[in-house]
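Kindly review these tokens for lecture notes.

. . .
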Amino acid sequence: MANKYISQMSDGEKTKVYGKHYYGNLYECNPRKLEDVDFLVWLVREAAKIGNMTLLDIKAWKMGLGASVVGIVLESHITIHTWPEFSFATVDVYSCGKHTDPKKSFDFIVEQLEAKKVVMGHADRSMYDNV
């Protein structure tokens, strides 16, 4: 039986669908910003612009001191979940299309939340020929 899991694509593959996903845990953020839902909504809106994504909608929920904000972009999504009592947030920026730059959006969010430590991950969510 052939192995159906591929850990990495070769450099010579042709991209059919272009997808980039950046996600991370942000530590020692500004807790006042983490509890400010209006600021977080603004932040998702600006991050979409900076990453050249087409913003369709934003939903936000306040939960205790923290919040969850979800930005639906035509190309996928931007999410921020916050725990101000721990100065902690998680961020997820995923987009499809060569015209977008989710890393730029992710970095902007990190900068605006004033994170002093970031554990970031990246996934190639692209589809390639010959898979």
Notes: The chain has one domain: 18-126. The first strand starts at residue 15 and ends at 17. Strands lie at 15-17, 19-27, 55-63, 66-73, 76-83, 88-96, 117-124, 127-128. Helices lie at 31-34, 37-50, 102-113.
